[in-house]
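Our consortium's second objective concerns turning raw sequence data into structural hypotheses that experimental partners can test. To show how far this objective has progressed, the report includes one record in full. It was chosen at random from the queue rather than selected for favorable results. The single chain below, 263 residues long, was entered without modification.
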Amino acid sequence: MFTTDQTAASEVDGDGRVPEELVDAYREHGFVRVRGVLEPDRVERLRAHAEAFLTAHRADSLEQRGTFSQLVNVWRQDENLRALTFDPRLGRVAEQLAGFPLRLWHDQLLVKEPRNNLATEFHQDRPYWPHAGDRLPLSAWIALVDVPPERGCMTFLPGTQHRAGLRPQDLHDEDDLFAADPELRWVPRVTVPLRAGDCTFHSGYTGHMALPNRTDVARIAHVVIYMDAATTYDGTPHVVTDPLGLTPGDRLDGETFPRPWRA
């Protein structure tokens, strides 16, 4: 799982399934790299669409402290990026790894600008989300450019996907996750570089960080976040749910949180 050879062909078959050893690795470690999720020509087209979308919407970024640009629910605004978010093969792999039915929570573009020397510090994703009654969510982090360590690839804390109950962590504080759970400081760290078109899947509780981008090329990732299809709203404020008029206990389903890859 942690080899450095990334020259292999796609690990996703025509039915949208990955080898069982990748499923086993994901469930043991809380993350896995899947090679060749996107074909090279498709990656190039999507990268161009993502760059154009970023240029038009950079001012809408939710991250205002310069670490990265974060544009949420791009599937509602760009039909080309929507097609990636709702790629049936991607959704089928996610459900294979999770082992239960999923819905879309939201997608996002995450971009580290060239020569951005800021890291995204260690954190878990799930504590930020207003979810209840759910099993482990997971994110597909798709590289639209080559992402070696010097361009801001991710580093994971294997086996931390079961560390639930922590408060949200500060992405800008390198020590905050470890202040919340000091034992995590001693977990071995695994850095996972990606070729354009490769993808990592990671659990919403798996501790991870992203290195700085020290190159002259923007690090562009398209992220699809999946949640347990049975997830309900817990009432906590969140940019995705705030406009929806939800009541705690409401199911997060319907057209806002669809399962289109089942079609």
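The partners drew two points from this record. The first helix runs from residue 20 to 29. Residues 1-7 have pLDDT under 50 and may be disordered. Both points have been shared with the crystallography group to help prioritize constructs.
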